[in-house]
Amino acid sequence: MQNGFKILTPRDMQHNLSKVSDMITTQPFIRWNNNIIDKVFLPFEREIIKKIPLIQEPLEDQLMWPYSKDGTYTVKTGYNVLKHWQDSTANGSTTNSHSHIWKKLWTLPTIPRNKTLLWRIYQQALPVRSALNKRGIQCTIVCPRCLHKEETINHVFMECHRAAKIWFGSKLGIRFDNNHRNFTDWLTHNIINLEKKDLSYIASIIYGIWYARNSQVFDNKDIDDRVVIDKALENMLEYQMSIKPEQTIQQNLSNNNQSRPNHRPSNRWTKPNQGTIKGNCDANLSVEGRWGLGVVFRDEDGEVLATATWELPGYNDPETAEACAIYHAIRLAADCCFQQVIIESDCTNIIRKINDPQIRARSYLGNYVWGINCNRGNFRICLFNHISRKANGVAHVLAKMAHSEPNRVWLEEAHPNIVPFLLRDLVH
Ligand SMILES: [Zn+2]
């Protein structure tokens, strides 16, 4: 199945199906129970199921994995299947319009859940109330957002005045008129014709509308239309900014020490890969003639391993102070006997210089770069990465704190001042 082997039909409580055998009848011979299948599954999935040939020998229901000889799932076979599936969808091995649509969706620069949602709308496989009702599920059919009309896919995403406000208020300023009667047709047209960037934005808005709808249904929470609009844009930008640095880190790790600077810093803090310790550092120049420096080291679970503050006499040059913070950070990492570290700073220039083999000690900041590079030998892997200020919140607080609590090291405990910022990094 093109949708990743996942059944898109919403769960049906009425027929209480839990096993494949519940959908098979044995009289007069073993075959699919078309009656049940037609009632429970969405049309396109009915057809797929009915095409699966059944054997006549009775077999107990069991979890299966068709891609290894003994039916046992292994990471390797799982990976191979996914890879094959990705390749075949990316190459467009079939030419029908389904695969064309799927191929375009699959390669969209957006969060996977947005792609799946678009695909479900395209397949008319969304559990809106009227669809549930048609399949015999007792529930109200009224739209939970406007409490006015029947909830269909068209209504949720196009006709409902809540949705209309969101589309119009978005950067696209879309206003549906009488030419747009069918949301799925409109979406399909856009999937085929729009550039991926614009389509990603549309996908974010659609997800926002659906999320707001679900919050109303399941949490009885009314999300303001403005919030939906802002969140959609924010999510899209955040995703686009986050994919690049992640890839660079991956590349860096596979190239061992040959790290390269990131040109597009991530807006959010991310946990390091397994076995790697991430250190974030920052400098503060708010007290005249003194630098406050701070660093926090966290592991792959986001747990704090060490934090430290330093206060030193310093002059008014933020970049030099930032370089000094990195220098202190790498020395502390060596003292803690970390083996594999990534050190992050929000200062582009110093990160670029550290990663540039041409930099001489005598150049501006060169002495710090030299000192930092001398310490690299203490580690199996040691990388330097540029991130945005937003992603460096904990270190920022520590650097400020350095003036009131100077020259301290905390091991495996978090100072209360930084706790809210640690949490913020983890939930983002
Ligand atoms: Zn409505």
TrEMBL record:
One MF term in the entry's GO annotations: nucleic acid binding
- Ranges for domain Reverse transcriptase zinc-binding come to 73-167
Region Disordered: start-end pairs: 253-275
A Pfam family found in this protein is RVT_3
Q: Which residues form the RNase H type-1 domain?
A: 281-402
Under the heading PANTHER family, the entry gives:
BNAC02G40300D PROTEIN (PTHR47074), REVERSE TRANSCRIPTASE-LIKE PROTEIN (PTHR47074:SF11)
The name of this protein is: RNase H type-1 domain-containing protein
Q: Give the originating organism.
A: Trifolium subterraneum
